[in-house]
Specification:
By secondary structure, the chain is mostly helical. Helices cover about 80% and strands about 0% of the residues.
Length: about 290
């Protein structure tokens, strides 16, 4: 007891306040955009030994885990987020889940094994939520890039055939493109303006995104420039190939629909059908 306040209420209040504080720390950028861009130009480096609040959360991951998490953050397009901030979000989620479970247990005044297990499950689930959001953002972003890539290649092929240089074609396509692919093109042009070679900037984009079709497109474009091939024809063929792949993927999804419809039909349609067929017979039987 603390001045008449039960200890468990104090623990719950402190838990909610601590989780809110950690969440606030995780969303406040620790470095400026210019510094982050310079680090990307130097090879996407991030130094966990920089000190300060980030270093404490950086210790949650070893070097391999930090590198893998950093790559996933880049794939999701969260360039303002560091692995240390993700660690802060994970800790904040764990504290929030534990505090929420403790609050439910205190409300029902039940600290049995079932409630303790529920608290542990809620803690793990809330701690995993930031990673789940990260993976969902990766999938969503890669799908958006895959859908926008054929149209971008067609636009590049048309502008290059019209006589524009490839850098000018990229600038024109970047103004027309929307979504993640347009953002990546803007980053490529920014790096080129800062003095990085076009091939290195394109390879850096492919390394950040790690989308199969985009990586293949970048590889083919770089090789075509190196060998002196007709870039307009190469872009046109790439656009046709990516569009065919997208159609094949759509056909695969359509072919899987009958299999996926089996369970909903068994759960929802068949019971209703049985009620319609045998309901009248059963009603007539019990009426007699």
């Amino acid at each position: 007891m603390f001045y008449g306040i039960p200890l468990i209420i104090i623990v719950i209040a402190v838990g909610f306040a601590l989780s809110a504080l950690l969440l606030a720390i995780s969303v406040v950028p620790g470095k400026s955009d210019v510094t982050k861009r310079l680090e990307e130009l130097e090879g996407l480096k991030w130094d966990p030994a920089a000190g300060g609040r980030a270093a404490a959360f950086a210790r949650l991951f070893n070097a391999e885990q930090s590198s893998r998490l950093k790559q996933q953050i880049f794939e999701a397009g969260w360039y303002q987020v560091t692995p240390a901030q993700m660690g802060a979000r994970i800790v904040a989620g764990a504290i929030f889940g534990f505090t929420m479970g403790l609050a439910f247990a205190a409300y029902f005044r039940n600290f049995s094994l079932t409630f303790v297990s529920g608290i542990l499950v809620l803690t793990v689930a809330c701690a995993y939520m930031p990673l789940s959001q990260l993976r969902s953002a990766i999938v969503k972003r890669k799908r958006a890039i895959q859908r926008a890539l054929p149209d971008l290649l067609d636009m590049l092929a048309s502008t290059v055939q019209a006589g524009l240089a490839f850098n000018a074609a990229l600038a024109y396509a970047q103004e027309m493109a929307v979504g993640p692919l347009g953002e990546e093109l803007k980053a490529v042009l920014s790096e080129v303006r800062l003095g990085r070679s076009r091939s290195d900037a394109l390879k850096s984009m492919a390394a950040r995104v790690r989308q199969e079709q985009l990586s293949t497109t970048v590889t083919v474009i770089v090789q075509a420039e190196r060998l002196g091939s007709n870039l307009a024809n190469v872009l046109e063929e790439l656009g046709e190939e990516t569009r065919n792949r997208r159609m094949m993927r759509a056909e695969e999804i359509a072919n899987l629909m009958p299999t996926k419809m089996v369970i909903p039909m068994a759960l929802f349609m068949l019971p209703a059908l049985f009620v319609m067929i045998f309901g009248g017979v059963a009603a007539d039987y019990f009426a007699k």
